[in-house]
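Progress against Task 2.4 (sequence-to-structure conversion) is shown through the following example record, which the project officer requested during the mid-term review.
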Amino acid sequence: MTQSPRFPAIAHPATDERPVDDTRHGITRVDEFAWLRADNWQEVFKDPSALDPAIRSHLEAENAYQSAMMADTAALRKKLFEEMKGRIKEDDSSVPMKDGPFAYGSSFRVGGEQPRFFRTPREGGTEEIVLDGDAEAEGKAYFRIGSCDHSSDHKRLLWSFDDKGSEFFSLRVRDIETGRDLADDVSDTSGGGVWNAGNDGFLYTRVDENHRPSKLFFHALGADPADDRLVYEEGDPGFFMDVAGSRRNDWIFISINDHETSEIRLLRTDDPTATPSLVAARETGLQYELEEGGDIFFVLTNADGAKDFKIATAPVGDPVRANWIDLVPHEPGRLILSLLAFRDFLVRLERKDGLPRIVVRERASGEEHAIAFDEEAYSLSLLGAYEYDTDVMRFSYSSMTTPAEVFDYDMRTRQRVLLKTQEVPSGHDPDRYVTRRLMATSHDGELVPVSLIHHRDTPLDGSAPALLYGYGSYGISIPAAFNTNLLSLVDRGFVYAIAHVRGGKDKGFAWYEDGKREKKANTFRDFIAVASHLVSAGYTSHHLIVAQGGSAGGMLMGAVANMAPEHFGGIIAEVPFVDVLTTMLDDTLPLTPPEWPEWGNPIASEKDYLTIAAYSPYDNVAALDYPPILAVAGLTDPRVTYWEPAKWIARLRARSASANPALFKIHMDSGHGGASGRFSRLEEIAYVYAFAIKVAGAVDGNP
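Structure tokens generated for the chain above:
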């Protein structure tokens, strides 16, 4: 493979090689680019200016290089941005959700980057802005609101923000009547909190210097946060902790979990500093969560071999595992995803045959009914509720061609009311597009679901470019939802496809298990099989496929680039988890101990070490004909640290047999999620799409 003629012949930045040896289980690895990891990374997360000047200089050189290599896409990026912006209703607003005398919602102003939170009288009326994100973000390079929770007496807001991108959130309390924040400013939190019954204090989790939420505190309004009472501390660094409240404001749930095991402790909101009571002790592989239901808890769990989960009940007075009674039994292949309980009804979101559905159960009779939908592939979400004593629940529906619709559904009469349809100001005609659900045969005969969309006029003769997206980890399933941004590709003749590979839960919990740890290679092989299926079915050709994935999906990108570079015309890896082995060997990093159940513990296990070493993208870079590659990262990212993609790109250049470019774009003032503003985020998407168009076709956007 020669260098793509679509990129100029500009020399890439030189990266010093400073070899460092690491020996584990008698196996020695050499990392020539380990120096890119800042020794003071904890400090950099809170103060990016503390970055070693030599590392900063290298990252800035990378940005200058990618900017020069992408300079001819400037007009295209501007055009893409304007198109995507034109599909957004700038003064968009959510449908307010009722709670007591008020209804609460969020909105944007024309030109605004950040959301505003408002309330109206319950049955409608004048909006009262209770928190203005644009005003709070003024003068900040990065700003993101983490949570905004009103007290049950409707007098105060508990809200949080992150102004570095490193996910160290500050919690504040706002007096709604005056619009002013109280002196209660708690730093280094996870971003959420739960009011006590009297609304004169709240519980929250604080993160340590390694970004682990291990301590639960109670803060009394007006007190010095330094004196906050420690309520519970989790001693195992392999478990994360968060706190949430019930909708009846009776209970506080302390959830402690890793990727395969969970444990819940309970507090009453009227006694938040008591010793939390244990529901079921952690047992490796046992997962459960609680939903309040009056005098009972509903328990969503995989206990007793219920791989795809079942629903049990437990008495509020003594909800220990011995008292769990099955209500909705386990059904293999029907994965129950979430629950929502009301006084007279229980609602569950489940996935069966690869598609989601909503099932409503009448609590008194046990009678059930499902809400029906007609399209071949679609996305569903339960939108929650503030109130418990109601017959009305809210959900959203969309497909790859149908804009999002928000419904209120009367569970008693079975009538749905359309409250809102996503507006596309520049226009959208769903009849111009085709959405399909395909099945691709993987290496072992498994059928991998594929959701795709293309313009009705796109020729299906192998000449169309394609953007193929994949994730495939942690059991996360990528929904076939409406996305106005991707229309900028589809209108240019692209086929956009989502590969629902193993490692997600698209076909049940077993689909997840068959794509983790020692079976992780199935994720990569599934993705490669989908690419081949799209080619054999005439949707595209291998040299026209641009693969895309982020975070763990970025690891997927690195793996398939090593395994089958000839299958792809380009690779886009956003915040990519590509140095898997090194990260899993470093137990000081924020996510490493809790990640061991997902990937394996290479410190303790030679088998896990060898398994990860066999696919870790950084460790398997070789003298191959790689296609053009783009990596995107954030300096203050605590989830996938910036040095992973920085090292990966450097090694690709050092070892690759390809003349194709490897670009690295790093945001120096943001973290894992990229830019925080809605329009600045569109500029990032425009950049990524421009790379895909540049790789697959002409820069003017007409492949």
